[in-house]
Amino acid sequence: MNERSKKFLEGPILTSLLTLAIPIVLANILQSLYQLTDAFWVGRLGGSAVAAVSVSFPVIFLMIAVGAGLAVAGSTLIAQYVGARNEKMVSHVASQTLLMVIITSVVLGAIGYVLAPTILHAIGVAPDVFDHALGYMRVSFVGLVFMFSFVMFQSIMRGIGQVTLPMFIVLGTVLLNLVLDPLFIFGWGPFSGHGVMGAAMATLVTQGLSALIGFAVLFKGKLGIQIRLPDFKPDFAFIKRAFFLGFPASIEQSARALGLVVMTALITSFGTLAIASYGVGSNILQFIIIPAMGVSMAVSTLVGQNIGAGNIERASSIAKLGAIISFVGLTLIGVITFIFAPHLIAFFVPGDDAVIALGTTFVRTMSLTFGFMGAQLALTGVFRASGNMIATMVIALVSQWGLQLPLAFILSRYTSLGVNGLWWAFPISNVIIAGIAIAWYAKGDWKKKRLTDDEQLVEAVSEEILVEEGIRK
Question: CA–CA separation, 305 vs 190, rounded Å?
Fold first, then answer.
């Protein structure tokens, strides 16, 4: 781990960024194939089936977001402790964060399973969509613990700079999902098909497998980090610290997720055609921003390690280069998306001319501002890496609740744009929020925070580890 982190602390910045970003991007592309594969096969069941997945995803994402702050706090601390060359704290943080994530996911999954019908009624899901959405949502909630666990495993690996193994694990499970999706959705021979719910069942199986592999890797300890069962004994000093560090990140993720729920409810009021078009367009958007997310995660890891090592100026250079790469790269992708939008929409809903037309309008309206979204994501990675979660929380709240939702409501209800007013809220908020992120970054507050300076916690953990090691021996 030390040799690898040395490259990230001293080597060429562009090489370091690409070394981390490329495997992360590939892993995220593969991960997104879960949604794309679901969308492809579910699209063969008709518009109501597509709408069922579209209304379910924001609700599931909301539950994920509530616990996501813990994962963000864990990966941020791991990166900084790697930079500070404190391997004992790296393993301790990984174990305690996994413990919190597992408990949180079990609780949230149970709550989501019970409240699923109430949630669907609350957002006004149409009768022809309700049963499909309920089955899909409930199976997804059952699998929440596996999803959380593997996401945390990826965060841990990313924090120590090991990003290739998660990519191969995702590749294997995605290939399995390609086989299981049509089998569980349509059935074959003695296997009965389960429709939309079958897509969630396939994901449950593959996510469960990937989580088990992740745990096996961490317990084996051959990649510079090792966890043991005694390490899962609750450390309330760390849990308190991780909670207060991760709470703003949870608010941030929850604000985005709840914003998606409200946006979905707003779009649902325009009918099944609008929600199906939004669902297909959102699938494309999720795929398009993967390169920017990869760069953002790579920036976060590198900046976190360099802050931990005290290399603030190098961290600043990483941030600027990451933002430039994201802006230019996503702008080019946006132009290509604008040109081929009808063909991309038709891939998911072949033959449905109405959805293709409206979905094309949605994608083209927002595609030329993808670059601004990319720059904002890169700078958000810097704020997370420094532990400045308040910045990311404020940016999320302003983006979703101060800009996008009010604009969508006003433009769709009080102008002649109608349903197209929903789509215009996306590019307008992308440009404004990118400007806010740039201004906040330029202020420089993120340079003043270093999480590894908490010597009391480090000493307490080190003493506890030494005691445990003595007992084991």
Answer: 53
Distances (CA, A) of 107 to 41, 53, 71, 144, 231: 31, 23, 16, 10, 22
**Residue type (1 letter), 465:** I
Asked if 132 and 196 touch (Cβ cutoff 8 Å), the reply is yes
Closest CA to 305 of 1, 4, 5, 19: 5
β-pairing, 191-192 vs 187-188, is antiparallel
- 226 SS3 class: coil
The H or E element that residue 123 is part of is none
Would you state the structure tokens that stand for residue 465, as one six-digit string?
């580890």
Query: The tokens of 358 are what?
Result: 């409206």
The one-character DSSP state at 411 is: H
Amino acid identity, residue 126? A
DSSP state, residue 193: P
CA–CA gap between residue 160 and residue 141 (Å, rounded) = 30
Given a contact cutoff of 8 angstroms between Cβ atoms, the answer to whether 56 and 138 are in contact is no
Cα 2 to Cα 19, 85, 263, distances in angstroms: 16, 7, 45
pTM assigned to the model? 0.72
Contact 329, 374 (CB under 8 A): yes
Collapsing DSSP to helix, strand or coil, 388 comes out as: coil
| Six-digit token string for 247 | 């709470």
pLDDT digit string (tens) for 150-163? 888 887 887 777 77
- Per 3-state DSSP, the chain is made up of helix, strand and coil in percentages (nearest 5) of 85, 0, 10
Distance CA 42, CA 29 (A): 19
* Per-residue pLDDT tens over the stretch 286-320: 778 888 888 888 888 888 888 877 888 888 999 99
